Amino acid sequence: MASGPYLHGHHASVLRSHSWRTVENSCPHLIPHLSKSSLKILDVGCGPGTISVDLATRIPQGSILAIDPSAEVIHKARKHAEEKGVTNVRFEVGDIFNWEIIEGVEEGGFDIVHAHQVLQHLQDPLSAMKEMKKLTRRGGIVAVRDCDYSAMSHYPPHQGMDKWLDLYRSVAKSIKCDPDIGKRLHAIAIQAGFSRGDIDASVSAWTFSTPDERAWWCGLWAERSTKSDYTARVLESGLGTEQDLHQIARTWREMEGKEDGWFAVINGEVIAHNKS
Question: Is residue 192 classed as helix, strand or coil in its secondary structure?
Fold first, then answer.
């Protein structure tokens, strides 16, 4: 089994978002489980590696193996680790469905298997969760976090923002992905074989409200709407036109300029304890 098309692609506007991510702002649910300095962690769908490298600094006697299907972003991740002087992290091209070919990956081989904003982009997130469970040692955890687009919120009201959200969710569903998966991560964990009592479910948010935050968030989405792989996916789907996308990009720029502008990204999280 292989992962399908990645809706966002790896345009600079996408990597700018991914490179902003840290343990603090992107996996707060995992922090209480990093008390041991010698953990062995698998980071699935690591992107440019900022979370992976941050995790590695928190477990100096441990190790991180981080994987991503894109050779381009793995190259960037290795460079990031080198620039930070972090040596207990290893980046390899690969995905959760073909872990057998990755050196150092074996069943029950990790204390923590982590995935951030990954399941929403998979056509078969349940199988991915099952594989993550398989790779976690008994007594270890699977830690997953994904957003719920249906719960995203903005102010002030703007029809253009409503159009963006409707279009994005429709395009994601057209390639059999679930943009709203954050609300049902615990349900997927149950289906994957975890007992409900062994699953800690939580929620956290990214909020973009200050002028700098709005400029960054709205700017990258304006660019992503017309220049990334997402643009091609919209046009291929027939659900939107170039005119629609340029209008949406202008909407993002308008939101950026609103002094009272506010945008919230709601993220569902689970810590699933592997006791089997």
Answer: coil
